[in-house]
Specification:
This protein is α/β, with parallel strands linked by helices and 620 residues long. It is built from 24 helices and 17 strands. It has a seven-stranded mixed β-sheet, with helices on both faces. Strands 1-2-3-5-4 form a five-stranded parallel β-sheet, sandwiched between helices. Strands 12-14-13-16-17 form a five-stranded mixed β-sheet, with helices on both faces. The longest helix is centred in the middle third of the chain and has 20 residues. The chain is elongated, with a radius of gyration of 27 Å.
């Protein structure tokens, strides 16, 4: 087995070239086997196997630096830097991260997890290298999906001014998570399909390089006219016009061609973009046919590609999807916006039924929010469906373009709270904090699937900025009988008791019910309040229950700073200083990857941990 010969970084450079294709096959088989067991990002990694091999054949780790945009495609990089044994615990608590991590290996040059960042980070590493008189190579690998993000263009604009080598590899597979959209996608399609240019590069340019003695001289002479030649055969030459040398397109599954073009790129004395054509999911038929499904795959059967565990109950995303379609039937002003995630956010059915009222803006969260503000200013009811951790990127647009004008934009915030295996960059644990700081913003969290439906209806009819946050996973179907109408800023009193008041936000209501049952064993009949609104908080219910309770316990799946508990504590300290308030939150920290139940237990956010915390507070 060739893969077993790779025990550490740079070992690939000792592999016989005739075995490269076999090594690529073994890597794909290894990844399919491991990800079928533990889940992970499969399609993007299968598509980048030869590209990663070529980079490791040309570069020397860890002196040379690779920055992987997003980081979904870095599994082969981890294999080639000696982390094969760690794949049994991939994305598990305490195990190998699914993304590049500097603390995991000195061969990981930069932590990533969100898109469109690698060129900016790479340019920073280039300038740090130059200022310190160092000579190593810096490579930023970015996908064509990430190139729809505005930050990538800001970075390209600045990279065009650099006067030292900086290699940008454009991994072009015509996909982000779903199929790419927009002008840049169309531009790259034109390059991909330009047979004249592909033939020219294959039959002339690289052919000349292979010629003994005269080949290099001829190539050097034609370099002076290369830019003009490319203008004749490639429409636009967007990158060259910016001042960035363009090389490609090159077959990203041809290791020989890839190593040649990367070596050529190392000789360029400015920013150079290497355009690589790859196929997402290559080598595994189910992933090739259904690349979106295998972007982030749950454990699956290798033979069929089907999930090992079939979904039985609807998750919150499914509920959101169903309600959006029902609301759209009744209200033709309702429109939906996503940033390259129609499948992940549950808008695929909406897209199919109402294509004229659906907008996928690509990986461009900032644009999505301001675009939604424009739609709202024009008299429509926009719903921006987005993951919590990705909405962070549009904080300024929420504040400046939506909330200052008090525009009726609804933010459907999926994956709020702990999301598990993707770790720090994807945990949705800050949204209550950063949204609460914005005037005119209102924030809700449903206790179950029926309340999600009611809150979404309330939000789109509210006439003001509304954020509706809900977790990943199966939608809670308990407390069905508790369905009081939604009123702005009003919580819901589910059970009334005395001594201890449990005030729970969204997903924590289910946990609070379990805690309440545990407290009954100690003779404590606790009050249970479903907070519903995090902003504004319901001070009337705090006033009402303060007479019979000595301990207030707030519970939320958010960091402590700026969260619901902090607001309750501030109010209680001002009005009822004798009352104790215990805020059960996530720590003010970045929480690593792992199973959500394991993480909650470790943090003390599970029912047992909260119960023990309350007993300690009561000195039981």
């Amino acid at each position: 087995m060739i893969l077993e010969q790779i025990q550490k970084e740079n070992d690939i450079q000792n592999i016989d070239p005739k075995d490269y294709d076999l090594l690529a096959e073994e890597i794909r088989s290894f990844l399919i086997e491991k990800i079928s067991e533990c889940g992970g990002h499969l399609g993007s990694n299968l598509g980048a196997v030869e590209l990663t091999m070529a980079l490791h054949l040309v570069l020397h780790m860890p002196e040379d630096k690779i920055i992987w945009d997003v980081g979904h495609q870095a599994y082969t990089h981890k294999l080639l830097t000696g982390r094969r044994d760690g794949f049994d615990a991939l994305r598990k608590y305490g195990g190998l991260s699914g993304f590049p991590k500097r603390k995991e290996s000195n061969c990981d040059a930069f932590d990533t997890g969100h898109s469109s960042t690698s060129i900016s980070a790479g340019l920073g590493l280039v300038k740090a290298r130059d200022l310190q008189g160092e000579k190593h190579t810096v490579v930023s690998v970015i996908g064509d999906g990430s190139l729809t993000g505005g930050m990538a263009y800001e970075a390209l604009n600045n990279a065009s001014r650099t006067d030292s080598n900086f290699i940008i590899v454009l991994n072009d597979n015509n996909m982000s998570i779903s199929e790419n959209i927009g002008g840049m996608s169309q531009y790259l399609n034109g390059i991909r399909t330009n047979a004249r240019y592909l033939d020219l590069k294959d039959s002339i340019y690289y052919g000349l390089l292979d010629m003994p003695k005269v080949g290099q001289k001829v190539v050097k002479k034609i370099q002076n006219v290369k830019s003009g030649l490319k203008h004749l055969v490639i429409p636009g030459m967007f990158f060259e016009d910016m001042g960035i040398t363009y090389l490609g397109p090159v077959d990203g599954h041809d290791i020989k061609a890839m190593t040649k073009v990367l070596k050529e790129a190392q000789g360029v004395k400015n920013a150079v973009l290497v355009h690589v054509i790859t196929k997402k999911g290559k080598g595994y038929e189910p992933a090739e046919k259904h690349p979106a499904r295998f972007h982030g795959a749950e454990p699956f059967q290798i033979e069929t590609g089907l999930p090992k565990v079939q979904k039985e109950k609807a998750n919150y995303t499914d509920v959101f999807a169903t309600v959006m379609n029902k609301l759209a039937e009744k209200d033709d002003k309702l429109v939906a916006i996503t940033a390259a995630m129609p499948d992940g956010t549950g808008l695929k059915r909406f897209k199919n039924r109402y294509p004229d009222r659906f907008f996928d803006v690509g990986i461009a969260e900032e644009h999505a929010v301001t675009f939604a503000a424009g739609l709202a200013a024009g008299g429509l009811k926009p719903v921006v469906a987005v993951y919590s951790s990705f909405l962070q990127r549009a904080y300024d647009q929420i504040l400046h373009d939506v909330c200052i004008q008090n525009l009726p934009v609804t933010f459907a915030i999926d994956r709020a709270g702990l999301v598990g295996s993707d770790g720090e960059t994807h945990q949705g644990i800050f949204d209550l904090s950063y949204l609460s700081s914005i005037p005119n913003m209102h924030i809700m969290a449903p206790k179950n699937k029926w309340e999600l439906a009611d809150m979404l209806q309330f939000a789109v009819d509210s006439g003001c900025p509304m954020a509706l946050r809900y977790p990943r996973g199966v939608a809670y179907d308990g407390l069905k009988e508790q369905r009081a109408p939604i009123e702005l800023g009003k919580s819901e009193l589910i059970y009334e008791g005395k001594k201890v008041a449990l005030l729970a936000v969204g997903s924590m209501v289910k946990t609070a019910l379990e805690v309440r049952e545990m407290l009954k064993e100690d003779g404590i009949n606790a009050t249970l309040v479903n907070a519903r609104f995090v902003k504004p908080i319901d001070t009337e219910v705090l006033d009402a229950i303060s007479k019979k309770h000595s301990l207030f316990v707030t519970m939320e799946e958010n960091v402590r700073s700026g969260g619901y508990g902090e607001k309750v504590l501030e109010y209680m300290n001002s009005h009822y200083p004798s009352k104790k308030v215990r805020s059960i939150t996530l720590p003010d920290a970045y929480i690593e990857h792992g199973n959500v139940d394991e993480l909650k237990k470790e943090i003390g956010l599970d029912a047992s941990g909260i119960y023990k915390n309350i007993r300690t507070e009561l000195k039981l």
